[in-house]
Design goal:
5-stranded parallel beta sheet, about 20% strand, binds guanosine-5'-monophosphate
Length: about 200
């Protein structure tokens, strides 16, 4: 049985990664999302269990101690982590899973699942990134300044990723991600069972 691919998608805040991941999930039925746990308070419109599982710091630390998280990291003063069970279950069922996580998390996932695919989403320019953050209007000036500083820091991880996709036009960025997934599924290393069968039949 083939197992699914972990597609790790990271981007500086404001690069449009959440919109991109939602659009990708709509276009690819074999793909599943992952609902992270976080100690960050919910933003308006966010729903517990749909956008994140919102936890107190104590409950989050308990999850770490129970080994319930594949990876976790502190981002912008809050803890974020990927639950292990839904991820492994979806992979076992043959679904691909997209993880929308920060670069620290991405590198942790790569260590545990070396065959995962890491994609960095970058904005067309710093000016556009700043504008997107401002227009989102979800953060005060101080938080926004912190997110911009963090964005510059996150860009330094770019070279650890397998692919870099610019999020200028949403449909083109989604096409790029779909192309990456398709190509990754055709890697001979991932097809070894199917290819052995094919080789046997030729003998
Ligand atoms: P936000 O607070 O804007 O939803 O997310 C802030 C950052 O945390 C983003 O870079 C997002 O990708 C990252 N993030 C969300 N969930 C996780 C997670 O489970 N693990 C890690 N390492 N980062 C996460």
């Amino acid at each position: 049985m083939t197992t699914g691919i972990i597609l790790v998608v990271s981007a500086p805040s404001g690069a449009g990664k959440s919109t991109l991941c939602h659009a990708l999930l709509e276009r690819r039925p074999n793909l599943r999302g992952s609902i992270s746990c976080t100690t960050r308070p919910p933003r308006s419109g966010e729903v517990n269990g749909r956008d994140y599982v919102f936890l107190s710091e104590t409950d989050f630390l308990r999850k770490i101690n129970e080994g319930a998280l594949v990876e976790w990291a502190r981002v912008h003063d809050h803890l974020y982590g990927t639950p292990k069970d839904p991820l492994t279950e979806n992979l076992r069922k043959g679904f691909d899973v997209v993880l929308n996580i920060d670069p620290q998390g991405a590198l942790s996932v790569r260590k545990i699942f070396p065959e995962s695919v890491l994609v960095f989403i970058y904005p067309p320019s710093w000016g556009i990134l700043e504008n997107r953050l401002r227009h989102r209007g979800q953060d005060d000036e101080k938080t926004m300044a912190k997110r911009l500083t963090n964005a510059r820091k996150e860009m330094t991880y770019l070279r650890h990723y397998d692919y870099a996709v610019v999020n200028d036009r949403l449909d083109e960025a989604v096409d790029d991600l779909l192309a990456i997934l398709r190509a990754e599924h055709r890697r001979t290393g991932r097809l070894s069972n199917e290819l052995s069968e094919l080789e046997k039949k030729q003998k």
